[in-house]
Amino acid sequence: MSLGVLVLVMVIALTFTYINGFHDTANSIATVVATKVLSPGQAVLLAAVTNLVGALWGTAVAATIAAGIVNTGVVDVGSELLICALLAAIVWNLITWWLGLPSSSSHALVGALVGAALAETGGNFDAVVWATDGAHWWLGKGVIPKVVVPMVVSPIAGLVLGFLLMGGLFALLAWFSRRRNWLWQLGRTPFVTAFFGKAQIFSASAMGIAHGMNDAQKSMGIIALALASATAAGQFDHVPAWLDFLKINENTAGGFVVPAWVAVVCALTMAGGTAGGGWRIIKTLGHKMVKLHPINGFAAESSSAAVILVSSVFGLPVSTTHVVSSAIMGVGSAKRTNAIRWSVVERMVWAWILTLPITALFAWCLVGLTHLWR
């Protein structure tokens, strides 16, 4: 990988991060804006700060993207692979953003990486790390244990946890009120609204940290993979000493140590993207799918943050979009099943299902085009 291509990969990766900012970070602040606890400007500032904190808090997800999806040797063979994968993910993110669909940037990137790797190697399935061998393969790295299984489990966990937490809050407040006929009105009483309005600031902060800890690290992983590939190819052997910070070596465990400067740059870029847009997604999540009050927003954010934080600790690149959306559905179901606009949910689910195969196809086609020009 030449230095010119390396710079291009980094620029496109940061572009993806910026788009992720107004595409996915909107998910972490949608509920707090929809409940009118914070203004859009205040929510953006909160998201920017908490995303930065989360991005600097561990690199497990970045390591998964860098060394757990595509075999590193494939990147050495085809320098265009990362560019094509990033462009495919960006195109899909822009399409779904324009349509107001909260699809997954995480799965868009993973699907594009898989499609690009297969296209680069002529359909060789060994180019992709599907799962590590052994009796406990589900604890290792690879697309199946790290992406496919969490893709199914994390939304279910968000929905169940949101339902249980919201139901528990309703039951607790009903017990305090001593009046059963208040059960479905408790979310709108002045005291409860004021209390959970304050509490939601903390839950939104936790959601922002969780988002930064997971989503910002995906671009960190791409940049780390590109830098490690260039280091292994000797591209930095003759650079001035002050550029030594660009070198990344693969460790004995088959992973990478992501430099702090990569984490900071990705986090700041995502914060800029958050400030640049994202209100289409906020409108879908915060207003179209179910009407939210502060108590509902607190339950949805707390449930989502819990699922994403646990996933991040184990290096699972889960979808913030899927988890937040399912948590909102769980919270709405605890209120009443007809509180959810299921037509909106249906459109979202279709976007979820199509993300992996479409981005893989996009990346495959882009790599195919580069082969024609060689």
Query: How many domain modules?
Result: 1
Q: Indicate the overall shape.
A: elongated
In which range does the helix fraction lie?
over 70%
What is the CA-CA span between the terminal residues? 15 Å
Low-confidence stretches: none
Question: In terms of structural class, how would the helical and strand content be classed?
Answer: mainly alpha
Oligomer: single chain
What is the chain-wise order of helices and strands?
HHHHHHHHHHHHHHH
Strand content: under 5%
- Strand segment count: 0
Fold blueprint:
Layout: H1 3-23, H2 25-34, H3 40-55, H4 60-67, H5 72-77, H6 80-99, H7 105-120, H8 143-177, H9 190-214, H10 216-232, H11 260-276, H12 279-288, H13 294-313, H14 320-335, H15 342-373
Helix pairs in contact: 1-6, 1-10, 1-11, 2-3, 2-9, 2-12, 2-13, 3-9, 3-11, 4-10, 6-7, 6-15, 7-15, 8-13, 8-14, 9-13, 10-11, 13-14
Features:
mainly alpha; 374 residues; 72% helix
Describe this structure in words.
The chain is an all-alpha fold and 374 residues long. The chain has one domain (3-373). The protein has 15 helices and no strands. It has helices at 3-23, 25-34, 40-55, 60-67, 72-77, 80-99, 105-120, 143-177, 190-214, 216-232, 260-276, 279-288, 294-313, 320-335, 342-373. Helix 3 (40-55) packs across helix 9 (190-214), helix 3 (40-55) packs antiparallel against helix 11 (260-276) and helix 10 (216-232) crosses helix 11. 58% of the residues are buried. The mean pLDDT is 78.
